Amino acid sequence: MLSFLTLARTYVYEYVPNVLHSTYLGVMEDVPTAFWRSHGEDNLDGVNYTLTGPLASWVVKSSTYTSRKQTLCCFTKGWAGFVAANSVKIGDTLTFTKVGALEFRVTKV
């Protein structure tokens, strides 16, 4: 079972011993680098995932962005809808657990 934790604006991941900081909550959600590297960047670009939250399920798109200095993988299209439908607020701690090939169970901790 693969999982990672996220706090709105501050992240703690199973694979990373230090705390990472997000730029914003709402439009997109960063996927931890160690997580997407272990699955392969190509397996996450343009893929639709179902996030099953405490209140609602939502389909979100994952996208990768590559610059000369870094690559980011994020949940993009649909993330803001998931946040609203599940009443996610800044300071909430979320656990993402991969339960299927294209599905995460998201729980508030």
Automatic annotation (TrEMBL):
SUPFAM superfamilies reported for this sequence: DNA-binding pseudobarrel domain
Top-level taxon: Eukaryota
Organism: Ceratodon purpureus
The UniProt record lists the keyword Nucleus: yes
Protein name, as recorded: TF-B3 domain-containing protein
Keyword Cell membrane: no
A Pfam family: B3
UniProt keyword terms in alphabetical order: DNA-binding, Nucleus, Transcription, Transcription regulation
Domain TF-B3: 57-109
GO MF entry, a single one: DNA binding
InterPro entries: B3_DNA-bd, DNA-bd_pseudobarrel_sf
